[in-house]
Amino acid sequence: MAEATRTSARSRKRAPYANGERKRAELVDAAFRAFAEKGYQSLSIRQLAELIGTSHTLLLHHFGSKDALLEAVLVRREELEGPWRQGLIDDRGLLAAVPEVMRHNAEIRGVIQLDVTLRAEADRPDHPARAFIRRRDADFVRSIRSELERELGAGRLKPGLDLGVLARQIVSLIEGIQVAWLYDDSIDMAAHLEAFMALIRNPR
């Protein structure tokens, strides 16, 4: 009987925590959509709360500040997208996977809008996402270079290319074509990346 009472007490303690985490996740997803549509700099914490249908006191309770909420949004995006991308690259190799990633990106316009908006805003030294974006960009270039080395080792990449330069070119092409696509969604992002990959693929 005593054990059942203790178990019931633990369950009651876990329930508010689980509810709080669920609510926090809902707020992160809603903030993601708001930032993607309106940007970060233009929204006060009160305006953001109104957009997502909650109170600014609740947002502050869960996150402490608008900056902390933005960080939670950026982390959440990578949690959702990162494992899928890496699994695809591991399975198919970088040259085949990148166009497929671009097809996927064409289905998540809000994600691309958020990324492009934050990139444009974060050129300001005081922007809270500036360090995150710079770190993420450096990690992105390094990961692309590492995957290019794997492609070279597998014989799928033309020999003699400067992998550091090539990694930066691929990252820049991805980022640039996404901006162009936001202005004109008739652009086939995957086709552009496939054409570039054909230029660097080993024709053997």
UniProtKB/TrEMBL annotation:
SUPFAM superfamilies: Homeodomain-like, Tetracyclin repressor-like, C-terminal domain. InterPro entries: Homeodomain-like_sf, HTH-type_TetR-like_transc_reg, HTH_TetR, Tet_transcr_reg_TetR-rel_C_sf. Residues 44-63 bind DNA. Residues 21-81 form the HTH tetR-type domain. Pfam families: TetR_N (PF00440). It comes from the Bacteria. Keywords: DNA-binding. The keyword DNA-binding applies. This is TetR/AcrR family transcriptional regulator. It comes from Streptomyces ochraceiscleroticus.
